[in-house]
Amino acid sequence: MTAVLPPVYGVLGSALHRRAAQRFDGTLHLDGEPGGTVTMRDGLVVAATTPVSPGPESLLLRSGHVTAEDWTRAFTAGAPDGRLAAELVARGLVGAAGVQVVARAAAADAVFAMALYGVRTCTARPFDGSEPDLVLPAEPGLDGDHLARETVRRLEAADVWAARGLTVRARPVPAPDPPDRPLRPERRELLDRLNGRRTARDLAFTLGRGLFAVLTDLADLARDGFVAHGPPGR
Q1: In 1, 10, 195, 208, which residue has its Cα 20 to 30 A from 202's Cα atom?
Q2: Phi, psi at residue 145, to the nearest 5°?
């Protein structure tokens, strides 16, 4: 079933649907605030990158799953031949399924982030054989219609949060009189990083978590009285 896309999804959603139907092999270059790229093989999304969402490397390194030294060794050994995922698995740093979970999560989060920040134009460039290998592609790739539906769901949630004051430009702070009850470790860590200067994007990169996951936890923490949204940044 094809998702019904809201206007905010616009150029990005239309491009994903059209290129998926064409079984496109290439890269979508998206101009926005700040935009990014989506790489497709046979119409499936195998990677997406944007400066406002952590990629697979950041998710692995910042979260502590892989040390910088181990990543460098695996990257040096495997990346030139497109075997980074295999090297990470062979060295026991992460399982094969874990690699794909991270790669798929990073791609989906990047598409959400680009849609949330806004995309103005899209330029499709078919592969011509000169492209470098992707660092950690999602294999076999994300179905375009499924990704569209998931992105719409996330955008609808973000729209609700924005109406309550939590936007991508807000700089949350701890509430002055929070409830006296325990929090899950990842939410406690997030709360401890709030200082009135970091946006959700800053927090995502600092913690090695997806932008949508950080926004979700911030919204829940605000609802429960632990967080105030703070002033918006420029």
Answers
A1: 10
A2: -65, -40
Angle, vertex CA 98, rays to CA 93 and CA 101, nearest 5: 145
Phi-psi region of 36 (alpha: psi -120 to 50; beta: other; left: phi over 0): left
Angstrom distance (rounded) from CA 85 to CA 225: 41
Nearest-angstrom CA–CA distance, 99 and 136: 8
Contact 39, 32 (CB under 8 A): no
Residue 38 and residue 27 in contact, taking contact as beta carbons nearer than 8 Å: yes
- Could you give the CA distance from residue 50 to residue 130 in angstroms, rounded to a whole number? 21
DSSP reduced 3-state for 92: coil
Pick the residue with more confidence: 8 or 144? 144
Q: Dihedrals φ, ψ of 29, to 5°?
A: -100, 115
What's the pLDDT tens digit per position in 142-157?
A: 998 889 889 989 999 9
Residue 111: φ, ψ to 5°: -65, -45
Strand, helix or coil at 66?
Answer: coil
